[in-house]
Specification:
This is NAD-dependent epimerase/dehydratase family protein. The chain is an alpha/beta fold. It has helices at residues 12-23, 52-62, 76-81, 83-104, 130-149, 170-182, 203-216, 233-244, 266-269, 279-292; strands at 3-7, 27-32, 43-46, 66-69, 109-115, 152-158, 160-162, 189-193, 197-198, 200-202, 222-225, 231-232, 250-254.
């Protein structure tokens, strides 16, 4: 039986990834800091990616065939408040995992998940936040370790992931607020810029994309994991209000039209991946998840 090691397993995407590989019959090892995943047949292993020796011991014992690295500090706003933790988690944690893999499972296929909003020195002259910097360094580090040590590393740059499950993403936050308002809460929801456009992809489609990259992707290649379409936050909020039957008031600090950014996903389509869950279905599933929670 093939083994997969998933870091960040208790996170939004990690939980879905564990379910996905468990359903495929993999021996799933879920790396967690404190809590365990309540999923049958998933093996919870506790550890901290900042503890290099502990991670090396874990990989030496498990010897996985696939490594899916999802652990990260993913909040750009939080990265301003605590840049050291952001850099340590996203950069040092990744280096420790790659170093452990180099010494214990050098032939394993490894997927490092980055972000489409990471800093790109070829396209931008200014850094937006420490988070973007940390993800840029993570990508550079991963490509370098792949070249230096002949590790089979692939990189996924991912857009905004949505869908059922606990998440701090904007769609989940608005959905929760809609339901709270319907139950008597009097507070509305304020956006920074309600006309901001974003690319949203269902987390279940993203996990399938990650598996396609691990199974069929090319070593040291970078893949964009996105829907290829953008929607304003206003459009999304209106749909969530409709689905939740809520009159939640929406306010915004500014009305600023932003240019849509279309992420090219051609490389993924060459791997026979395609989006299967449309935006409206994802939003419907989010509302139903919180209604049942």
């Amino acid at each position: 039986m093939n083994k997969v090691f998933i870091s960040g397993a208790t996170g939004f995407t990690g939980h879905h990834a564990c379910e996905y590989y468990n359903g495929l019959g993999y021996e799933v090892y879920a790396l967690t800091r404190n809590h365990s995943l309540p999923l049958n047949d998933v093996r919870n292993v506790h550890g901290n990616l900042l503890d290099a020796e502990a991670i090396r011991v874990l990989l030496e014992k498990i010897r996985p065939d696939l490594l899916l690295h999802l652990a990260a500090q993913n909040h750009s706003g939080q990265s301003f408040n605590d840049p050291v933790t952001t850099i340590n988690t996203n950069v040092i944690g990744t280096m420790n995992l790659l170093e452990a893999a180099k010494h214990t499972v050098p032939h394993a296929r490894i997927l490092i998940t980055g972000s489409v909003i990471e800093y790109n020195p070829c396209q931008s002259t200014e850094l937006n936040h420490p988070y973007g910097l940390s993800k840029y360094i993570q990508t550079l580090l991963s490509r370098s370790w792949s070249s230096f040590y002949d590790l089979d590393i692939r990189i996924a740059k991912t857009t905004n992931l949505i869908g059922p499950g606990h998440s701090n993403g904007i769609c989940s936050l608005v959905a929760q607020k809609c339901l709270q308002y319907r139950k008597g809460d009097t507070e509305g929801f304020q956006f920074h810029n309600i006309l901001d456009r974003r690319d949203f992809l269902d987390v279940r489609d993203a996990v399938r994309a990650y598996d396609s990259i691990l199974q069929k992707g090319i070593k040291n290649e970078t893949y964009i994991v996105a829907s290829g379409e953008t929607h304003t936050l206003l459009e999304v909020a209106k749909e969530l209000k409709k689905l939740s039957r809520s009159d939640l008031p929406l306010t915004t600090q500014q009305f600023l039209h932003t240019q849509p950014v279309h992420y090219v996903k051609d490389k993924l389509e060459y791997l026979d991946w395609n989006q299967t869950i449309p935006l409206k279905q994802s939003l419907k599933d989010i509302v139903e998840y919180y209604e049942q929670s």
